[in-house]
Amino acid sequence: MSTDAAGDSLRETPAWGRLQAHFAEVRKRTLRELFDGDPERGERLVADGAGLFLDFSKNRITDETMMLLGELARERGVEERREAMFRGEHINVSEDRAVLHVALRMPRERSLIVDGVDVVREVHETLDRMSAFAERVRDGEWRGHTGKAIRNVVNIGIGGSDLGPVMAYEALRHYSRREMAFRFVSNIDGTDFVEATRDLDPEETLFVISSKTFTTLETMTNARSAREWSLAGLGGEAKAVAKHFVAVSTNAEGVAEFGIDTDNMFGFWDWVGGRYSMDSAIGLSTMLAIGPAQFEQMLAGFHAMDEHFRETPSGGNLPMIMGLLSVWYADFFGAETCGIFPYDQYLHRFPAYLQQLTMESNGKHVTLSGEHVDYDTGQIYWGEPGTNGQHSFYQLIHQGTRLIPADFIGFAHSLNELGDHHDKLMSNVFAQGEALAFGKTPEQVREEGTPEAVVPHRVMEGNRPSNTILAERLDPQTLGSLVALYEHSVFTQGAVWGIDSFDQWGVELGKELAKAIIPELEAGEEPKLHHDSSTNALIRRYRNVRRGV
Ligand code: F6P
After folding, report:
1. Which of 6, 40, 223, 254 has the most CB atoms around it within 10 Å of its CB?
2. How confident is the model at residue 8 (pLDDT cuts 50, 70, 90)?
3. Is 92 close to ligand 1, i.e. is its CB under 6 Å away?
4. Which residues is 265 bridged to in the sheet?
């Protein structure tokens, strides 16, 4: 029997039992019926906050479902856990750390004392340093070794030190300094670095080495290649690279050892998880692209959603609603995945960003106290921007056998109004939600004159759930709110499941094994291999092909 830190089993909470009985009823009901019997549904099952509007009426729920999910949240202590996070308690139990990304966006006049330190003051000191640096680079005042202004910024990082920055840069490209080029290198595959730098002039290129630990294999390997590339292009003098490298890290020693002056380092703190760090100094490349003022707007959006999450009762609380619906689908309907479909080309990296946020956070098989869970945890998140996805995988969502709850994200205004493109784009957001929910009955198909043999193929059962998130336009503030919405939805899910959403031990084993295999691949003499027979044979085969044996 699984237990959370408080010693209660999720399955034994009264709300869980009531939800199970309730589910037996709800699963038989269709969205068609639910809408037909309740003309106000589409206007009632909605919520808004921090500039985002959420329509959750096309979910397989009733008012009672939401009431019971709210009870489940209360019984699982979601609100107490939320308060513990905001107070800076060590809710990341397996790493014994506070989880304080919310402090990264608290306004300057606030204060939050954690272990005797005002973390908000420290956050703003770093933001001020970042702003001063970003202004110097953007104004052309910061010069490279040969006196040229910086025109290219290459962020080197991986995971949270890449996905947030690249997603935010792409999302806010409209607001970016267009005369400058921004590139992102993450993969240890040399192709990533080579392709990102092939048309850049080292004299005009600044590398931002972003790594919380400053030990990550991929990032350190790419950083060393970047240093060689710079040196080669700047005449080979070691001191030449000083003006071309800055670091973002919590590890000052590692930064100094690498050879970057710690005056050119922007720090953050162990209470910022990698996947929750795009609004910390890890966002330096974002700030270089959009400027400090727009970055501040983004932080204001994050903060507005933090306040909404903290203060709004569960019935109208966007992250809680979305988080509880994820629990509903994952644990009662057995939905394994959740589709994220932003109808905005600028958000094309948003699903990739959310994959780390959601799956590294809630892909856990034990509770806070280390017991194996006896229910499903984190769903698989995936997606592509609309309308492209419609012409690719939507078929399976509409007519396949699996239930895939979807989030549609759209904006009232386009940042690139072009003829009637935007109305056509948004008509697809509304149409997809409608088609998924209500489908097409056999009668409707027959009425179209479809031959009887083809009728079953053209029937769409509907009853496929979705959320629709609408905002006015994709600006820095809205992006901040949107990211914080998902951060807190993930938090809500993790709190209900009683898991540690802030560690990531599962990624360690693969890293360790790779480190052990590197010398085996590089050895001149045939190494003695002690892996399983499959891994041994693969390593031998690779070595043979490389040596032309
Ligand atoms: O491999 C997982 C991970 O630890 C992520 O959690 C993190 O975002 C990423 O690696 C990068 O880590 P770092 O910023 O320390 O280089």
Report:
1. 223
2. low
3. no
4. 247
